[in-house]
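FYI - complex with iron/sulfur cluster, inputs then prediction.
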Amino acid sequence: MAKGLTKAFKKALWVYHCNSGSCNGCDIEIIAALCPRYDVERFGIKLVGSPRHADALLVTGPVTRQMVDKVKRIYEQMPDPKAVICVGNCGNTGDVFYESYNLVGPIDNIIPVDVHVIGCPPRPEAIINAVAKAWVKLETLEAK
Amino acid sequence: MKAKTTSKTTYQIPIGPIHPALKEPVMFEFEIDGEKIVDVDVTLGQVHRTIEWTGMRRNPIQILYLAERICGICSYCHPMAFALAVERVAGIEVPERADYLRVIHAELERICSHILWAGVAAHEIGFDSVLFFTWQIREKALDLTEYLTGNRVTKAITMIGGVRRDITKDMYPMIHETMNYFKDNFEKLRHIYLDDKTFKMRSQGCGILTKEDALKLCACGPTTRASGVKKDVRLDQPYFAFGDLDFDYVTPDVLTGEVNGDVYDRIIVRLLEVKQSIDLIEQCLDKIPAGDIVSEPKIPKLLATLKKAKGEGIGRMEAPRGEVFHYVKLTEQEAPYSWKVRAPTYNNILPWIPMLRGEQIADIPIVAASTDPCMSCTNRVAVVDNGKKYALNKEELHRMSVEKTRRLMA
Ligand code: SF4
């Protein structure tokens, strides 16, 4: 578990997932984290259908040019305090697509990222760990 | 209340590119009259990552890993189809054992993909418990994938001229155990999907694709087989070791004796294909000969051979969603001169139009999902206009599609 995480959470963490042009690999691993084997819903982590309800944003994919403004808008729509988790190598570094002409990413260039998850795709455990880290950030922000 | 008189009888609903009901960025414009769908237009290009362009700057072995990232769900068929194309150009003979191993991985991926699809379909209808049940089964398939290849999703098992990892005798028990697990759960799945009243109500007679339309619109994979078209690259043009194995086309009449081409039939076809894949893997384990797993284990040597190769080649493969097609042209250079990918969703997007015509808004998700669309496979071209405006290159790729899409109902 991530350092600094309290035993009991003050509230459930709602996550919005945004696909900015990924290959689906990361997306299915995110869904896998929700499914019975990992079952993050038992911790109160839940995917929601609107960024306006979300505490944390999971972004996958290298952000293609068509998706830039959408990613920005989603980020702006989220209420503060918020955390951004970038899942997968291609959002972090560009991965195999790094030299492509149609990418604006890495995601750092577009919105501030709090937690980077490495892997192509990362395992569900890594994604859950990242969400827990984002949680720590949110709880510290709230404590201030 | 006084009724308002307005000349406009239809209204438009834009859906996407980011929408909770969509798993991937794609944009739809629906023209709706009351509850009925009058017109549909699809805008693609949001997932365009310039993979082919990038590929023309890399050597064929690097491209394998690029091709793998076209789509995370078909992360085996894309590099494999590419490898088939390159092998054809360079005249590389694949050892027989590798052919059998390739079949095993291909069929395992089909199982993963179809079970994943079954979950998504259940989710679209509103059956989330079934989604979780199928994904639990899928985890078993992923465990096996990880055991055999070292990875859950992007497998990196492909090599030009063979595969990268062998399946040894001591791995058989795990494979058999997993296959038995699938068989045990198959009956349960069949019961849920085919006997359940709600499933039947939502899927029977909904999203019909006639055999005629399927042929006309060049649908492929389970989508076309569910309409009664016997089309399967594995049988039509056997590759790998499929020629030595015993199996047949899966059409819904095998089970029900009739072909309706509706969503229900597409469920039947995919379920039966899971069973077929289990059977194929078991046949492979029985028949697999001893020998090498790759024709040239030394990568620098292989690269040197590829650098001398010249010509054009195609690789066709039956991916879980239909036929995937790779075209490669090598010209004695390090990087290929040209590389073109045609993913099955190209063919399967057009049939959405006859399927959705006259259906209700609420049926859009399940009808669209019934073709198992994959947008990251499909987004091949985006046009740059002044570096700002982007649109799909309709002339080249979706010429036919757009003509059809524009006027759905005359
Ligand atoms: S990080 Fe890898 S698996 Fe994840 S979306 Fe990018 S290419 Fe796909």
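The beta strands of chain B are 11-15, 27-33, 36-43, 158-159, 162-163, 310-319, 322-331, 338-342, 383-385, 389-391. Residues A 22-23, 25-26, 60-61, 88-90, 95, 120-121; B 69, 72, 154 surround iron/sulfur cluster (CB under 6 Å).
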